[in-house]
Structures are given as C-alpha cells and as structure tokens.
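dumping this here so i dont lose it
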C-alpha cells in the first residue's frame, strides 16, 4: 500500500458518478485507509469506497455481516464531525446523499453511509447501523 494522506488522490467508487474515479482524500480512517473523499469529477464529498470491494455486491455484503467488530461509534464520531456535511432532518420523504448527517427523532444524529437503492439508505448511528426508508 502506498502512502495515503489527506489531500492526496485515491481511487474511489463515486456513488454519484457510479464509476471508479480519482478523488481527493479529505479525512483518513487510520494511516492506511481513507475515510472521506471528494470526487474529482462531480466534486461530491462522500465516504471512501474501496474500488476492489465494490466490484462485487455479494462480496461487500458478506464483508459487512462479518464486520461486527468494527467500532460503529468510532466511525460515527469521525463522520459526525465533518464540517462539510449537509445537516438534514430525517423524514421518509427526504432525499439524501452519502455523507449527509441526519437528525432522527428516535435514533438521534446519524450519517448516511451507503445508498442501498432508490428507497433505502444505510445510516450509521452512534451505536448501531440502520437501514432507513427515504425518497417516498
Ligand atoms: Zn463523482
């Protein structure tokens, strides 16, 4: 692995362009893994998506169910600090993008981590990851 740090370019799967594109690292998860990136093409700030794990959907799912030891609170804390994130109130009618900070009346503040499909998003809350309905 080459040296990655904030400000450097990295290949990430852009959820907006739906392509693997170069992006600028905005925040690091640890010294090796980027956490948030800005797509060089559409300039959207979003969670870093490792292109290699993004290739197969099945692979990603398997990884996610196994990743129970990932400290959700840690990811949540990092994400919630992002000053560039959109802060929005959660309603099922709302439309969200990856990186948005939701205010959920039951679960509290959460960060949109993945757009699952047109009506489902994966949101990280302080102690849990939830699938929420949106865009209804
Ligand atoms: Zn893009």
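and the seq i came up w/
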């Amino acid at each position: 692995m080459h040296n990655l740090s904030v400000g450097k370019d990295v290949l990430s799967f852009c959820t907006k362009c739906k392509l693997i594109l170069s992006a600028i690292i905005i925040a690091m998860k640890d010294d090796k893994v980027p956490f948030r990136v800005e797509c060089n093409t559409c300039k959207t700030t979003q969670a870093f998506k490792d292109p290699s794990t993004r290739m197969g959907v099945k692979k990603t799912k398997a990884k996610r169910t196994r990743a129970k030891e990932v400290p959700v609170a840690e990811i949540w804390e990092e994400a919630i600090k992002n000053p560039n994130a959109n802060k929005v109130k959660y309603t099922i009618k709302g439309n969200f993008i990856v990186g948005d900070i939701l205010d959920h009346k039951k679960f509290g503040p959460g960060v949109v981590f993945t757009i699952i499909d047109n009506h489902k998003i994966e949101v990280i809350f302080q102690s849990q990851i939830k699938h929420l309905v949106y865009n209804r």
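The mean pLDDT is 85.
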